[in-house]
Amino acid sequence: LPSPGIKTEDSLSHSPGQNSFLSYASNFSSSPSGQALYSYPTHGNSIPPGIFQGANGISSSAAFSPSQQDFSAYPSFTQGQYSPYYSSHYNTPYLTASNVSPSSISTATSYLQQEHPSVITNHSPESLAGEYHPPASPPTPEKEQDSAQQRRGSDGKLRGRKRASDPTPPLDSEIERVFLWDLDETLIIFHSLLTGTFATRFSKDSAKAVSLGLWMEEMIFNLADTRLFFNDLEECDQVHIDDVASDDNGQDLSTYNFAADGFQSPSSGATLCLGTGVHGGVDWMRKLAFRYRRVKEVYNTYKNNIGGKCVLGSPKREEWHQLRRDMEVMTDMWLTNALKALTLINSRPNCVNVLVTTTQLIPALSKVLLYGLGAAFPIENIYSATKTGKDSCFERVVQRFGRRAVYVVVGDGAEEESAAKKKNMPFWRVSCRADLDALSHALELEYL
C-alpha cells in the first residue's frame, strides 16, 4: 500500500526561520532591524475593527478589498511585532535549499529544545490511556475583565471564548472564522520521518526517526484495514464522509455481515470506481454507503479514546502508547503544540477547525485518531483533496460556511498556499515548531 499523505520534498525544504505570516497583505511594512522573532508587546487597548476584528471581520459578502488588506489602522500595537511572518508578495514563499544555512537550522533547533522539557518516558501505558491534551493556557486578566460591550465586534456578536453553558455548537451559517488546516508536516510529523528529512533538518537520530515513521505507518494502515474498511474503500475514495450518504437507506447495521454481503465480488470489483465518481448498481452503491456510515460510527465512538482496549487490542495498544511517547520526544512535542492551537480555536463560540489533506479519506481518519486529533475535528470537518485538489476543497468549504466568514489557512506546502492566494485567504506557514508556538500566542491575544 502507498504511504498516506505523501508530500513532496519542496514542502519540507524551506527554512524554519520563515519570513511570512498572512502573506496576502500586500502593503505590510518590513520589520525594524534587530527585531526579535517573538518580542510581542503587551496587549493594550481594544483594537479597532478591521479584517481581524469583530465577529466576522468583514462588513459584506464581497471579496477582500484593498482597504481590508491594509493593516495600518491598528494604533495600539506596532506592525513590526509579527514582521517575520509577513511578506508583501507571493514571489518567494519558500526559501530554496541554497538559502537554508546550517546556522539558521541549528538556532531553531536550540529554540525548540529549550522551550519544553522532555516527555517523561517511564510512565506506564495506563497513564496515557486517553488522548494527549495541551497544557491549559492561563486566562488573560484584562480579557476576562473586559465588558461585553468591549468584546463585541461591529455587528454586535461576541468574540470571546466559548462558555461552558453553551448548549449546542453554532450552525454552519453562524460560523464567523474558519481555520483550514493541512495535516502532514503541519499538525503531525509523519512523512518527513519516513524520508529522514525531519532528522536532517533538526539534527535528530536519522535511524530512530525512520524507525518511528515506519512504526506509525504500520499502525495507520492496520487501523484503516481492520476497523475502517480500507481494503474495500481504497479504490472508492471520497472527498467527504457523507458523499455517498444519499445511497444509504438507513438499514440497521447492528447485525449486518459486511464480510459476506458480496461487495468485493468479481462483478462489483475495483473497476466500478473510476475517475471522479463511483459507478455501480443501486444495491452495490447501498453497500458502499453502509461502509462509510460504519466508518463514521467508529470515528465518532472512539475519537476521544482510540487507546481503548476494544479498538487496538493488545499488544497494539501498548505499542501505540510507547510510539506516541517516542514521537513526542523526537519531534520536541510538536503534536502537543499543535493541539494547543486547535484547542484555543475550539474554545471560541463561532470559530471552527477544518482539515483539508492530500491523504485519502480513510487513512486520513486513521491518522487523526492515532495522533489524538479527533476531539478537534468532527468527522464532518475532514476533507480529502486526493482526487480534487485543495483548491476545489477550499471552495467546497466556503460554500458550506458562507462567504461572510473569514478563512485562515494553516499549512506547510505550496499547494495550500497557492489555493489560499487564489481565494485571497490569509496563510500561516508552519515550517518548525516555533511557528506553532507563535500561532498559539497570536490566538491567545486574539490577533487572529
Summarize the structure.
The protein is an alpha/beta fold. Helices cover 34% and strands 6% of the residues. The longest helix is centred in the middle third of the chain and has 22 residues, at 206-227.
Can you offer a commentary on this structure?
Belongs to the HAD-like hydrolase superfamily. EYA family. This is Eyes absent homolog. Keywords: Activator, Developmental protein, Hydrolase, Magnesium, Metal-binding, Nucleus, Protein phosphatase, Transcription, Transcription regulation. Its cofactor is Mg(2+). Its main location: nucleus. The strands form two sheets. The protein has a five-stranded parallel sheet with strand order 5-4-1-6-7, with helices on both faces. It is α/β, with parallel strands linked by helices and 448 residues long. The model is unreliable at 5-21, 23-166 and 266-271 (pLDDT under 50). Helix 5 (206-227) packs antiparallel against helix 9 (316-330), helix 5 packs across helix 11 (361-370) and helix 10 (334-346) packs parallel to helix 14. The protein has 14 helices and seven strands. It has helices at 102-115, 141-145, 191-195, 197-201, 206-227, 230-233, 282-302, 309-312, 316-330, 334-346, 361-370, 390-401, 414-422, 433-444, and strands at 177-181, 273-274, 277-278, 351-357, 382-384, 406-411, 427-429.
